[in-house]
Amino acid sequence: MPGLTAEYGITNKSFCWIIFASSLVYGFSRFINGYSVDRVKGRIIMALGLLLCAVANFSFRLRRQPKLGFSPAQKVDQTSRAR
After folding, report:
1. Among residues 9, 18, 46, 71, which is most buried (max CB within 10 A)?
2. Among residues 68, 43, 45, 44, which one has the least CA distance to residue 58?
3. pTM of this prediction?
């Protein structure tokens, strides 16, 4: 974390909030996923999750190419270099 703090200026308190939020989302998703798997076959839910993950990864990859438009990662990188 010290490298990320130095590079992006994120405080330890911000890291705590990020970890807290992701843990909260993970916890709630367990209930939602458990309910949906009980109602529908587990293989269908797994295939749907894998498909959505692939689409999300593909869309993030497209956003990082400069010729396709603005990327938040590029903006953060540019502001950290300006310091």
Report:
1. 71
2. 68
3. 0.49
